[in-house]
Amino acid sequence: MIDFKTAPQAIFALRVTTGLLFLVHGLIKLFVFTPAGTAGYFESLGLPGALSYLTMLVEIAGGIALILGVKARFVSAALVPMLLGAAVFGHGSFGFNWSNPNGGWEYPVMWAVVQAAIAALGDGAYALVPSGKTAGRVHYA
């Protein structure tokens, strides 16, 4: 049973929380690890260094878009492949548990599932630019 009165606020809370976390992750890569350091890390994984700049941009811009509710369904759907890539390339060899040295793959996979859920659920309450014609409407099955 879905509580249609509180579901939009619950989606809003999930959207803003994950948006803040994406924003912080991107800003840490930018200001703490630095773009050059992040690129070096990506290269150490066998990935192109340029992919690190795209990752920082997606995390920062995607985080802001989720916080504000700008096309959140589309942003969340776009974040899923990036998160699955992080699970495979960045953390896959370190095992399941995130508390393992260098982290495990379960945390980015959980993030990917959460983003897929937001993409399926919709924008939630207080979306600045809703995703599509049916955004903000409650549909009863």
UniProtKB/TrEMBL annotation:
Quote the subcellular location field of this record.
Answer: Cell membrane
Q: Which Pfam families match?
A: DoxX
Topology versus the membrane, per the UniProt entry?
Multi-pass membrane protein
Keywords, A to Z, come to:
Cell membrane, Membrane, Transmembrane, Transmembrane helix
Q: InterPro entries, alphabetically?
A: DoxX, DoxX-like_oxidoreductase
Instruction: Locate the transmembrane regions by residue number.
Output: 12-31, 51-70, 77-96, 108-129
- Sequence similarity: Belongs to the DoxX family.
Q: Which PANTHER family match?
A: INNER MEMBRANE PROTEIN YPHA-RELATED (PTHR33452:SF1), OXIDOREDUCTASE CATD-RELATED (PTHR33452)
Its name, as the record gives it, is: DoxX family protein
